[in-house]
Design a protein that fits this description.
By secondary structure, the chain is α/β, with parallel strands linked by helices. It is built from five helices and five strands. It has a five-stranded parallel sheet with strand order 2-1-3-4-5, sandwiched between helices. Helix 2 runs parallel beside helix 3.
Length: 122
């Protein structure tokens, strides 16, 4: 069962993602806090991270950088409601697997998740 870590400060969004992904058979870990998300990554070594950029304590981009330092092969899909070309380029440059704007189509997100999980890291 693939493990997915959700990091999003929007509690409604977090619960919605948890429900959808658990219903798809994924093991879910979640937090609304960036530093806690980094700790959960270290502890559980998830197969994929869904990461919001707009976090309150440290930015999602900083969380992305720190997770990539822990595991350069980490698969991270950045999800944001504050989409811009600059933030997309920065996220991809820092190693994000993909970039998704809120609101998103659930089926399209599930396909991105399946695609990321189907690629084996060497």
């Amino acid at each position: 069962m693939p493990k997915i870590l959700l990091i999003d400060d929007d509690e409604v969004q977090l619960r919605l993602q948890q429900s959808i992904l658990a219903g798809q058979g994924y093991a879910i870990y979640s937090t609304a806090d960036g530093p806690q998300g980094i700790l959960l990554y270290k502890t559980h070594h998830p197969d994929l991270v869904l990461l919001d950029i707009g976090l309150p304590t440290i930015s999602g981009i900083e969380v992305l950088k720190q997770i990539r330092q822990i595991d350069p092969k980490a698969k991270i899909i950045v999800i944001t409601g504050y989409a811009s070309v600059e933030s997309a380029v920065l996220a991809i440059r820092e190693g994000a697997w993909d970039y998704v704007r809120k609101p998103y189509d659930v089926n399209a997100l599930l396909k991105k998740i399946e695609s990321a999980l189907s690629v084996v890291s060497n």
